[in-house]
From TrEMBL:
Pfam families: Rieske, Ring_hydroxyl_A. This is Aromatic ring-hydroxylating dioxygenase subunit alpha. CDD domains: RHO_alpha_C, Rieske_RO_Alpha_N. InterPro entries: Rieske_2Fe-2S, Rieske_2Fe-2S_sf, Ring_hydroxy_dOase_asu_C_dom, Rng_hydr_dOase-A. Residues 22-130 form the Rieske domain. It comes from the Bacteria.
Length: 354
């Protein structure tokens, strides 16, 4: 299951295509005309906030002859103009101007059905999600997320968060290895000896397509042990467990989101093949923290700790992959019960059980 391309294709068909996927933060497209581009499941996407304030997602492919409408990672525009032959679309994706079709009036252009192709998109507590599968059989976003928003995102006020760093790279490992390592603490004292140390967690009560664990502590987990009382202040207005600790959640299949009292970060796993995984990493702080005079000085310590842990997990997942071609059956120990649950969820999806 970690090396076989036939199994991988079944995962794509039964889990990745039918899923809702994280695309970015609504705060990254905060004004009308703000846009960002990304690739998900090998499809180019364009996320734009319209003049009406709505966030929409489009296939980033011109309706003339298919060039990307833009290849800028992000920016702001008054309309969307394809660089090839300058076909132009409104922020809502409507074809407005089509060189080569000058004889066509506005209504005739509308009748061509050549507006940008929209994909289902929804925003919950500042998190943008898109759906790339068959819309006819898609679950609603709320049904997909279950109680994630009410249990984690809303109490942690994720809508306050602004992305400060984002990057993307590819690892030579199966995507499941990285999701598994996110969900167990057995490796922490071995792989993250100097960066995390011990971090006891309890399992969250999840309904819907997410699983999570919770670590209770008044101090941020996002600084090195010994520095943790030197973090930024907590986000104002946190409630319940969000005020007392950190949720580590997997929004299935591959979006790992950590919501702490002072910071939010994610490690998004999108498979390219059975043995290659695209990883999108992002760090975010509340807007009020970005305005602090000590932001640059203090945030450096966060980046150092967060980068170190990500690099340690990048390393161990690629290392683990090298042993998996041997097809040697393994096992879970009791401390890995969350991994066991995660892997059972994957089996249920792929084998259509449950
Ligand atoms: S391909 Fe976009 S205008 Fe021709
Ligand atoms: Fe780890």
């Amino acid at each position: 299951m970690y090396t076989d391309e036939t199994w991988f294709q079944r995962e794509m068909d039964t889990m990745f295509r039918p899923a809702w996927h994280f695309a970015g933060l609504a705060s990254s497209v905060s004004e009308p005309g703000a846009f960002m581009t990304l690739r998900l499941l090998d499809e180019p996407l364009l996320i734009v906030r319209g003049d009406d304030g709505e966030v929409r997602a489009f296939r980033n492919s011109c309706r003339h002859r298919g060039a990307p409408v833009t290849d800028q990672p992000s920016g702001t525009c008054r309309g969307l103009r394809c660089p090839y032959h300058s076909w132009t679309y409104s922020l809502e994706g409507v074809l407005k101007h089509a060189p080569g079709l000058e004889g066509y009036g506005r209504d005739e252009l509308a009748g061509l059905g050549k507006d940008l192709l929209q994909v289902p998109c929804g925003v919950r507590e500042g998190l943008i999600f898109v759906h790339l599968g068959d819309p006819a059989s898609a679950p609603t976003l709320d049904a997909y997320l279950g109680n994630y928003v009410s249990t984690v995102a809303a109490p942690h006020r994720t809508a306050e968060m602004v992305a400060v760093q984002e990057r993307e790279y590819v690892l030579d490992s199966n995507w499941k290895l990285y999701v598994e390592v996110d969900m167990e603490t057995l490796h922490t004292k071995h792989i993250h000896r100097g960066s995390i140390g011990e971090q006891p967690v309890t399992m969250s009560e999840s309904e819907g397509n997410w699983i999570g664990v919770y670590h209770e502590s008044p101090h941020t987990p996002a600084l090195h042990p010994g520095e943790r009382d030197r973090g930024f202040p907590h986000v104002e207005g946190l409630s319940g467990k969000a005020a007392r600790g950190t949720h580590f959640s997997i929004l299935l299949p591959g979006f790992f989101l950590v919501t702490a009292q002072d910071v939010m970060w994610w490690i998004h796993k999108i498979p390219d093949s059975a043995t290659r995984t695209r990883v999108r990493v992002g760090y975010s702080f509340p807007a009020s923290t970005l305005e602090r005079e000590d932001f640059d000085e203090v945030s450096k310590h966060y980046y150092k700790r967060l980068n170190q842990v990500v690099e340690e997990d990048d390393w161990i997942t690629e290392y683990q992959q090298k042993g998996l071609n041997a097809s040697t059956p393994g096992c879970y120990v009791p401390e890995e019960h969350v991994v066991h649950r995660l892997d059972n969820w994957i089996l249920d999806q792929v084998l259509h059980v449950g």
